[in-house]
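Deliverable D5.2: sample structural annotation.
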Amino acid sequence: MSGNDTASFESLDLRPELRVGLKKLGYTAMTDIQAKAIPVALAGRDVVGHARTGSGKTAAFGLALLQKLDLRIREPQALVLCPTRELAQQLTSALRALAVGLDGARILTVTGGMPSRDQRDALAAGAHVIVATPGRVLQHLELERITLEKVEVLVLDEADRMLDMGFEEQVNDIIAFAPTDRQTLLFSATWPDEMAKLSTRVQQDPEIVGVQALVDDRLLRQSAVLCDYTVREQVLCDVLAKRTPTPTLVFCETRIQCNGVAGVLQQHGASVLVLSGELEQRERDEVLVQLRNQSARVVVATNVAARGLDLEGLGLVVCYEPTPEPGVHVHRVGRTARASAEGEAVSLVAGARELRRFEAIEAHMNTTIPRTEWSPSGSRSLDGWSAPFRTLRVLGGRKDKLRPGDILGALTRDVGLEGSDVGKIEIAERKAWVAVRSAVARQAADGLGRTRIKKKRFRVHLL
């Protein structure tokens, strides 16, 4: 984060423990939404935040809810509702990073796609903050595994997407379990009539703050390539071949289209994965892990499957065809150019109908996006888009007291890899994912599976 001193985190009246997390994260100057929302939220007011993707809204509501926690009370004092499992996991990680100085603060994720028994046991142990998707947390509430009696702060994040996905009734049912004198913070990228009605129903005299721009034109470069339907696959290959490989998200309208596009890119040499609604949660998690750790260059996704994704370092978004909903386009291209980083979005536009869609997008965004007519450029080889790493899945995690250094040490000391052969290591509750150079991936998987880490042998799979 960067900015001027007038929007400094130092100007906020925060408990000292929260400054530990801010310092560790390197946060000094606030983003626009943070500067507008945090002082109001710290004062106890309800807030409506109009915030685009990547604007820093997690810290905007996170600091406010963490400020109020009484760590002596092992009951939920804040509930964060969001539309997708991936976003819930990302929010939990971000809140834990902010709360690193709050000794004993317990922040739990409660979503579908995770064993209900594990969640029941974790909830029984107590929590201060719950980050959840509506369906699963409502289930636990109805089974009396969670009480919201002590909740002081309710956050509805990406509330517009929760309504789009049909969660309104569940959200209303959840709110009925919460105290009426709570503080409610509502964040949304768009503001349809349904959002205004929701705010009226669940908030009391909210302060409306926000960032007016839908995307940051200073950081996001948009363009469009006009072409014929019959050559769209060739155009996509050209778009990638002309660019330096970077983590890339390609949006398609359907799952079948996703699979076809991924197959074409793979034929030309790119490392590609598909993210669609048919995947189980474990498979979805591992797609994102592999993109983050450079075991894949491109993820081809449907709109629904990509909702709530926060992919750090995503350099390019390609819209394989224009969406008929201009607001969806904003969410698509908002996946890049985040957190002060530059990004690029390219739309492929074929035929008169798609051109009309694209013009509606320009009108919605109040901008003119540069267009070029496609012409063949010769070779469409994507060999440069092959991934330098492969990913190992280790069936052990934080529950086994595994740390990145333990795995790195085993690979270099016992398996014989060089330190430069090992990339990013991510550790979850019961699993770990390790990026290793493609050339030594099989050696790493076999060797790590045979060696002992902390006197225990773990099963290892090569993804």
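Annotation notes: Confidence is low (pLDDT under 50) at residues 1-5. The radius of gyration is 23 Å.
The annotation will be released with the project's public dataset once the embargo ends.
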